[in-house]
Amino acid sequence: MVRETVLRVRYSEIDAQGHVNNANYLSFFEVGRVEWLRDAGLSYRDLEERGFGFVVVEALVHYHSAAYFDDELLVRTDLAEAGRVSLRFGYEVFRGDERVASGHTRHACVRLPGGRPVRMPEEVRALAADPA
Question: Is the dihedral of CA 69, 102, 111, 35 positive or negative?
């Protein structure tokens, strides 16, 4: 399932050169990920209340072109894989038809509180196999 989320670049997200600061793309990815889970019928809040946390263990961003203040961006997010204790989301960020950035984040499932690795909840693993 690919989830599309629309964002508008805020002035606070640009750097001295006038384009989106590179670190902000990870925040854009996070917005896409949270909305993806919400659309799939899950939420970080509910998972955390059940004692599951997801910590980022890997992040990769490819920058294809610059985005600027007030640009409307489309973040496409998909759950690329879900294993026993980790999952990986893929992202593409577009301004119109132009791809601005792409990348992925990998997350380890941990028990809250404490942060010890734990088996992924079955409903999360099942989402990776669901083509809907």
Answer: positive
Domain ranges (residues) in the chain: 2-129
Count how many Cα atoms sit within 13 Å of the Cα of residue 32 in the half-sphere of its side chain.
31
Tell me the pLDDT of the chain (132 aa) as tens digits. Answer: 899 999 999 999 999 999 999 999 999 999 999 999 999 999 889 999 999 999 999 999 999 999 999 999 999 999 999 889 999 999 999 999 999 999 999 999 999 999 999 999 988 888 876 555
- In whole angstroms, give the CA distance from residue 94 to residue 67: 9
Q: What CATH superfamily is the domain 2-129? A: Hotdog Thioesterase (3.10.129.10)
Contact 87, 39 (CB under 8 A): no
Full-model pTM:
0.91
